Amino acid sequence: MAEAALNNAGDAGNPGGAPGAGNDQTWATGFDEDTRGWLGGMGVDKLPPDQALAKVIPMYRGAEKKLGVPADRLFTLPKDENDAEGFRAAMTKLGLPENPDGYELKAPEGDPGTFLKTATGWMHELGIPKSQAHGLAAKWNEYVQGQTAAAVEAQKVRNAEDYATLEKEWGDQYDAKIELGNRVIRAAGLSEDEAKQITNAIGLKRAATLFAYLGGAMGEHNFKGGEHGGNRFQMSPAELRAKIGSIEADPAYHDAASPKHASLVQEAFELRKLLYPEQA
């Protein structure tokens, strides 16, 4: 547009085409008001077109060399820290999306995304560009995962210490009491996660002690029969001996690593109490 305005004005003011020969300086009227103001401020609007070009072109080339980048890579800095509009204009140039959804961030698997929605709202409010938002989200997820893993490991250490303490306190009754507590959990219909919540809240030692105490207070007759079945309180001494023999014949009874070992030991223990009440 600028070249066209200059060329047209030059032709009108200098029909012969001789450089600087025309006196008509109306060529600047072909530009918009803002540009005309700039030309006037530079003092070139009163010059013939060829002289105006001779003055403006070196200025433009000098500015381009000094900046070192194309014009489309430039943006205006905010006037000061209170220039909210100028700041957002600059951040938009750097990738600030139009709205929080423009960040295109996804919540981790299993996360409902409630916090993410709130966080992206904060990011957009503060003018954080998209690429920085993704970097921040990655750092946050990494931090949370690290904290979660550390908490899990710390809980494992505490549980191991509690188990060791219980083994020392309960002695040869350890397996039986642990199984008694597990039966309380099953009888109460607690899921594994619910039992873990109780354990984590009050500590494994206190939880195991509580469940074992409740199991003892409830009495064996309040539990469903074990894998080997039968109503123990209706068994004759011969039947009790046969049941104990059946349990002791199970390989899991002698294998401490078997998942069934503790329950079999407990069941045999309870049967012996019924068979030999005077020794209980």
User: What spatial form do the alpha-carbon principal axes imply?
Assistant: rod-shaped
Global mean pLDDT: 82
Helix segment tally: 12
Largest sheet: none
Low-confidence stretches: 1-23, 225-233
Distance between the termini: 107 Å
Beta-strand percentage?
under 5%
The helical percent reads 55-70%
Structural class: mainly alpha
Total E-strand runs: 0
Order of helices and strands: HHHHHHHHHHHH
Q: Give me the Rg, rounded.
A: 43 Å
Q: What does it look like?
A:
With 280 residues, this protein is mostly helical. Among the domains are: 2-73, no CATH class; 225-280. Helices cover 63% and strands 0% of the residues. The protein has twelve helices and no strands. It has helices spanning 2-13, 33-42, 49-67, 84-93, 114-126, 130-170, 174-187, 192-202, 204-218, 237-249, 251-254, 261-275. Helix 7 (174-187) crosses helix 12 (261-275), helix 8 packs across helix 9 (204-218) and helix 10 (237-249) packs antiparallel against helix 12 (261-275). The longest helix is centred in the middle third of the chain and has 41 residues, at 130-170. It is rod-shaped, with a radius of gyration of 43 Å. The model is unreliable at 1-23 and 225-233 (pLDDT under 50).
List key phrases describing it:
280 residues, mainly alpha, rod-shaped, disordered N terminus
What's the topology here?
Layout: H1 2-13, H2 33-42, H3 49-67, H4 84-93, H5 114-126, H6 130-170, H7 174-187, H8 192-202, H9 204-218, H10 237-249, H11 251-254, H12 261-275
Helix pairs in contact: 7-9, 7-12, 8-9, 10-12
Brief digest:
With 280 residues, this protein is mainly alpha-helical.
